[in-house]
Amino acid sequence: MSKLYSQSREAIFFFNHGGRVLYMNPAAEKIVDNDVLKQLYEGHAETICRVCRGYMSETELRTCIACYFTSPESERFSSFQVYLDTVGKGVIPYAASYHTLDETEGVHVLMLRDLSQQFKTQESFYQNKMMKHVIHAQENERRRISRELHDSVAQELMSAVIDLRVLKYMTGEEELLKKMRQTEESMTRLLDDIRNLAVELRPAALDDFGLEAAFRSHFKRIKESYGFAICFDSNLDNQRYGSEVETVIYRIGQEAILNALKYAEVDILNFVLREENGHLRLMVEDKGKGFDPDDDPIGTGLGLYGMQERAELVGGRVSIHSEKGKGTRITLDIPVPEQAYGGDWS
To answer: In whole angstroms, what is the distance from residue 48 CA to residue 20 CA?
Structure first.
């Protein structure tokens, strides 16, 4: 028992009825500074208030109303959460329990267990969960707008283009025909822009046919728009994965290509997408300008940061290797279960 007391990582305080510290184990002594420690041993009961930042009640995160020292017999203080301002670590949350050991002598024991790591784990979990909800909502909204553009706006515009073509045969005035042809050309370009925008927002091929089909369609648009060639190597065929995984891979691949278009100063890149040994691996490589990863990123840098954030949501990892004058290689690795089809972002 003596070893348990002295070597325990939990801080243990023994108080008498007046609030004077009778004993503290080494873990407890490390929490407070020497001045507070001295005053606690001298019997200054209010000294504990100098380091206490309140306990959690049913209505408040931190409160001092009717605390465990003033109401030690209250059932709600058998187990609770308290915040202490510790030496060198700042305010730390503790799981606390306060018990009466000897009613006659008024001896109480306060035991504290540091919850910092648990709080960090919970915070990370909730951040990831919230990020998934945000991205899920974004993709659903992209899908809705894309369908609206394609099914409503584009169709209405197409009807107007057809009407113009019909009207051309109903007049022989050259000036009017010239103006109608110009308007038709403008509306046709606008129609193409709307269709491209709808696909960029959320390609139907990704939902209907999967990653390989979506990327092939994307590469075709890139070549038509920018003359940018992409050498594509894939072994997925028609293999499907969870919607969440497919969305992450597509968006990261899309961002990697966009970065190469903006900064690499090349007209060709290699794009590899393969499943091997239970992992989906994406590699986008160019032989362009490159950059020093230790320098501040060109632009906002949010694209590279967003890639890593998205990858972490599905248990993946993004690595970026670049060197000035030798190009850039972006790789993504995501573990996938054997029965991968399905997912949360349907």
So the answer is: 10
Burial call 143-162: b when 16+ CB within 10 Å, e when fewer: beebeebbeebbeebeeebe
H, E, C per residue of 276-341: ECCEEEEEEEECCCCCCCCCCCCCCCHHHHHHHHHHHHCCCEEEEEEECCCEEEEEEEEECCCCCC
pLDDT confidence of residue 226: 87
Q: Is the pTM here over 0.70, yes or no?
A: no
- Cα–Cα distance between 195 and 218 in angstroms, integer? 13
Tens digits of per-residue pLDDT, 223-271? 988 899 999 999 998 899 988 899 999 999 999 999 999 899 999 999 9
DSSP annotation string for 77-108: GSSEEEEEEETTTEEEEEEEEEEEEETTTTEE
Show the tokens assigned to 94.
């503790």
Is residue 124 within 8 Å of 154, Cβ to Cβ?
A: no
User: Residue 193: CA atoms inside 13 Å, Cβ hemisphere, count?
Assistant: 6
Q: To the nearest 5 percent, what fractions of the chain are helix, strand and coil?
A: 50, 25, 30
- CA–CA separation, 153 and 274 (whole Å): 37
Q: Which of 302, 301, 305 is nearest to 291 (CA)?
A: 301
Q: Which two tokens stand for residue 11?
A: 């801080």
**Apex 101 CA angle, 95 and 107, nearest 5:** 95
